[in-house]
Amino acid sequence: MRTLLDKLYFFSGALSGLCIIAICVIILTRVIGRWFSIEVPSSDDFAGFLLAAASFLGLAYTFRRGEHIRVSLFISKLPKSINCWIERFILILGSLLIIYLTWQLSLLVLESYEFNDLSSGYIPVPLWIVQFPLVLGMVIFSIAIIDQTLCHLFFGELLPKSEEESLSDSQPIDLAIPDSLNTERK
User: Fold this and answer.
1) What is the DSSP string of 58-114?
2) CA gap 74, 173 in Å, rounded
3) What pLDDT digit, counting tens, does each position of 57-85 carry?
4) What values do phi and psi take at 118, rounded to 5?
C-alpha cells in the first residue's frame, strides 16, 4: 500500500512539473510570436490555468517530502511527548479542514459543469475543465494528509522534515562568544 501511495504522490508531483513546463512553452511561444508579429490568443489565461493546476497538483508531493513551509520554531523546543501530541492535533485538524475544502471545491466544479460556465478569455474554455486539476490535486493532498495522520497515530511516524530542518536539528546553534573576541574587546 505504501508504494502505491508514494507512486500516487510522485505522479501528482510529475503532473505539476509538466504543468510548469507547459507554462514555459506557452510563454516562450508568446515571446517568439512577438518577434514575428504573431499573436498567441489567451496565452495569459492558459498560463494562469496551468499555474493553478501546478500549485494544487504539487501539494501532496511536497507535503510528503517535508517541503511545505512550517513554523516549527515554537514546538521544536517543547518536550518530545508534548510535541507529538501537538503534531497529532494539527494533523487531525488539518485532515478535517482539507477534506472540507476538497468537498467544497468539488461542489464548485460540479456547479461549473451544470451551468456550463466558460472562461472570459479570448478562447472560451469550460471552467470545469480548468478547475478539475485543482480538485484532483486536493483529493490527492487529502489522501496524503490522512495517510500521514494515520501513520502518526498508529505507527508513531513523525512528520517528514525538509533538508533545511534536518540540518538545523542536527547541529545546535552555539551563540557563545569565543574567548578570543572577548579579550579583544577589553
Assistant:
1) THHHHHHTT-S----TTGGGS-HHHHHHHHHHHHHHHHHHHHHHHHHHHHHHHHHHH
2) 16
3) 999 999 998 887 776 666 777 788 888 88
4) -120, 150
Which phi and psi (to 5°) does residue 86 adopt? -65, -45
| Terminal C-alpha separation, the chain | 65
Please state the domain extents for the chain.
2-65+77-160
For 163, what's the count of Cα atoms within 13 Å in the CB-facing half-sphere?
A: 1
* 41 in Cβ contact with 123 (< 8 Å): yes
CA 132, 23, 138 angle in degrees (round to 5)? 30
Q: Is the dihedral of CA 71, 74, 79, 83 positive or negative?
A: negative
